[in-house]
Amino acid sequence: MPSKPKRPCRFPGCPKLTGNKDGYCDEHLRMRRKDYDRYMRGYVHHKRYGSHWGKIRARYIRKEPLCEACKAKGKIELAALVHHKKPLSEGGTNDEENLMSLCVSCHEKIHRRGHDV
User: Fold this and answer.
1) Average confidence score pLDDT of the chain
2) In sequence order, which residues have a C-beta less than 8 Å from that of residue 109 and are 6 or more positions away?
3) What span, in angstroms and rounded, lies between the C-alpha atoms of 30 and 43?
4) Model pTM above 0.85
């Protein structure tokens, strides 16, 4: 069976033809993947939180199993995430005073607004 004809690279101004299904020549495909890893995937979880974060998170969820933001509003909702009140990127720590257990909804609201509840 004959192969599909090659198409022009999707990268603006690139004259090369490609058979790659994503539409980029090999050179620009490598560049796109590198850009994707850097800008689209966000941070690398284990570099920011470290291997000990899972234990800290589990211990804190056992201590505070309900969403602290919902509890303050008089609602009862199970916590799914542990949030840093002061982000690690701004000098926050994994100390319990800097943590709060949240449901997914409250956590998303915090990050949409860009500040704490």
Assistant:
1) 87
2) 117
3) 19
4) no
